[in-house]
Write a structure and sequence with these properties.
With 104 residues, this protein is α+β, with helices and mostly antiparallel strands. The chain has one domain. Helices cover 31% and strands 17% of the residues. The chain has 4 helices and 4 strands. The strands form 2 sheets. Strands 1-3 form a two-stranded antiparallel sheet. A two-stranded antiparallel sheet has the order 2-4. The longest helix is centred in the N-terminal third of the chain and has 12 residues. The chain is globular, with a radius of gyration of 12 Å.
Length: 104
């Protein structure tokens, strides 16, 4: 089963590439947890864009986690919004799908 370890030193670009390699789906990274803000800069680290009051840390993600749960946990850790999309990034994945299934 695919597994991804994420920490604050990870750049947005690296996170998106590793996410796609691990799960086959695309990841959209935003500057706010509500996903209504602007897209995060690919060169930024997660620690540099995390919202005030969030500690970050390390998050280990496995392919059997649902899309919705992953998005919630990510926002809770860093105060950064993410959304999982299909492999070609043309539509958002269903929140009840697993991360592994979302990329297929």
């Amino acid at each position: 089963m695919a597994e991804l370890k994420i920490n604050g030193r990870t750049t947005v670009k690296k996170l998106k590439a590793e996410f796609k390699a691990a799960f086959g789906s695309s990841l959209r990274v935003y500057m706010s947890p509500t996903c209504k803000g602007k897209m995060a800069d690919d060169a930024a680290t997660l620690a540099s864009i995390r919202a005030e009051g969030y500690k970050g840390g390390e998050l280990t993600v496995k392919g059997n986690k649902t899309v919705g749960k992953f998005e919630e946990e990510f926002a809770a850790a860093w105060g950064i919004g993410v959304q999982v999309a299909n492999a070609d990034d043309s539509k958002l994945a269903d929140n009840s799908a697993t991360l592994s299934a979302a990329g297929k």
